[in-house]
Amino acid sequence: MGKPTGFLDYQREDAKAESPKERIKHFNEFHVPLSKEEQQKQGARCMDCGVPFCQSGQILNGMASGCPLNNLVPEWNDLIYTGNWEQAYLRLKKTNPFPEFTGRVCPALCENACTCGLDGNPVCSKQNELSISEYGYENGLAKAAPPKFRTGKKVAVIGSGPAGLSAANSLNKRGHEVTVYERSDRFGGLLMYGIPNMKLEKHVVERKLKIMEEEGIHFAANTDVGKDIKAEQLKKEYDAVVLACGSSHPRDINVPGREAKGIYFAVDFLKATTKSLLDSDLKDRKYISAKGKNVIVIGGGDTGNDCVGTSIRHGCKSVIQLEMMPKLPDERAENNPWPEWPRICKTDYGQEEAIAVFGHDPRLYTTTVKEFKMNKKGEVCKAVLVSLESKKDEKTGRMAMVPVAGSEKEVPADLVLIAAGFLGSESYVTDAFGVKVNERTNVATNPDSFETNVKNVFTAGDMHRGQSLVVWAIREGRDAAREVDKKLMGYSNL
């Protein structure tokens, strides 16, 4: 700790964001980073606590508190305060192979467990992490470092999302020959097509992929395992296989009129926009356009917010975001103490933009769709909404959200985007490999293990733990790689 009074001397200062009405004119990242001098002051706010909850990665009351990667947060905060950026980069990379991703899209579990946040503003560790990562690229530290020897073992990684890339990165550094298979035309999985460009510009992903290729990792695009290439072939050709296909089966809604044209899953809407943006700067028109349309987004999470922001950039006429649950409190409740993840209401970038453009928050709480209505062409034109209330189910004794009688109302709807989460991985991959799944359709393993019921077939990421965060996927990939390495070599130094 270089400055004992840092948290008193300096106030938290976040990176400035473009105004909502300016940033909706483009699909680029819209935060302007602080200068190195300003960032050093933010590093000074870290007190190197005796018990640094920020790096703990523990589960409290069912939710993560602190960094799942156990990043050495106090160390590199102090190193940037003292101007030792190179050492800060090396300490960051010791635990996190992809700080250029987490520094942009992680919800900052470290900050919500920061002691300064107990009674004040936490250290902006996420922003510090991104600054360190970009320093590495700007100063030649982020470069390929191929392994000095090869083990002679071959590993196939199925899926190039954060879990797959993390597993591939660790296994390659150990000296195994790794091939990553991806069914899409570009690598990155969720990072490429699931997260909009304004949150994570795709050149950032491609920049890292280039380094991984230079380190010796092989990438095979447009290859759908279980369809284009047989699982049995992979099991014969490779010493181990890691399944990291994500949680890609979207949850649907079952209401009258669901078959109407103009109702899409959010993931298809977001992917089409990003692909068209990358292929042609949207000039090919090969995307689901929200321009001039009344948009309804079903789902109050991050994906729903991304749909709101993307629809506004398309030029939608209006946008409503439906959330089944009640609005969260503005401050922590008594049963949600620090350092638990704060269950409070937050307004994200898409909602900020909707407020700026339309003059009101797009979210409707305790509300869902009861029915869709169609025009003569079979296109959705209206949605019947209904309010919900919490009641105890007499049969199960559990609380459930149920419709309020007489609360129905009609709203115009030309485009409906379903962002209701995911139901696990798609079954054709698990069926092809013969791996078992649990009741949630996640790939089943023993506790604290990543090996499936099929010998030398492992799993990691959302396919294993269910829909989660990028940082958890990276952790899963890293830990799965260690188990694969131990199985292949008899021990692991990962």
Describe, in plain words, how this protein is organized in 3D.
It comes from Candidatus Anaerostipes excrementavium. GO terms for molecular function: iron-sulfur cluster binding; oxidoreductase activity, acting on the CH-NH2 group of donors, NAD or NADP as acceptor. Residues 153-329, 401-477 form the FAD/NAD(P)-binding domain. The chain has 494 residues and is of the alpha/beta class. It folds into three domains: 6-138, Alpha-helical ferredoxin (Fumarate Reductase Iron-sulfur Protein, Chain B, domain 2, Orthogonal Bundle); 154-248 and 423-489, FAD/NAD(P)-binding domain; 263-418, FAD/NAD(P)-binding domain (3-Layer(bba) Sandwich). 34% of the residues lie in helices and 16% in strands. It has 18 helices and 18 strands. The chain has helices at 6-9, 20-23, 36-44, 73-81, 85-95, 99-105, 109-112, 125-138, 162-174, 190-194, 202-214, 231-237, 266-280, 302-314, 349-358, 427-433, 462-465, 470-489, and strands at 16-17, 31-32, 58-60, 63-65, 154-158, 177-181, 218-220, 240-243, 263-265, 294-298, 318-323, 363-365, 367-374, 380-392, 399-403, 409-412, 415-418, 457-459. The strands form five sheets. The protein has a five-stranded parallel β-sheet, sandwiched between helices. The protein has a five-stranded parallel β-sheet with strand order 9-17-10-11-12. Strands 13, 14, 15 and 16 form a four-stranded antiparallel β-sheet that branches. Helix 3 (36-44) crosses helix 4. The longest helix has 20 residues, at 470-489.
